[in-house]
Amino acid sequence: MTHCLQLEAHCADFASGPGEGDIDASDLEREITSFVGFALEKNLQKLSAIQSLNYIYQHSLIDLYPNTAIALRLLTTLPVTVASCERSFSKLELIKTYQRSKMAQERLVGLSVISIEHEICRLVDTYELVDQFANLKARKVLL
Questions:
Q1: pTM for the whole thing?
Q2: Which of 28, 33, 48, 51 has the most CB atoms in a 10 Å sphere around its CB?
């Protein structure tokens, strides 16, 4: 019973928060309860918020769960913390040292992106990328 009261309170808070005017608290509460039952029935309880939103759209369930879709859309677009911004500035401080203080802004931004997105950069085959670039910029004329 306490879960129902908590859900009711959270739905009321959410309806008066960022989605004010777009979401009805009692409808949202009913939709969430229904969607949780549906997710348990379909064995979808491990879906994240964005995966749940994608599932609703892919399976044309938007008419059944319109308020839930709005709530999920807001939850997936609102930043939870400012940690990513702080990490970006931390990386920027590491990259822009005294020796590099004269580098162009474009190079600094490029190095920052590479440093921040280092997991993606590890997947890139640099040798293939250099070969492609070399082929594009080759100044040799075949006779």
A1: 0.48
A2: 28
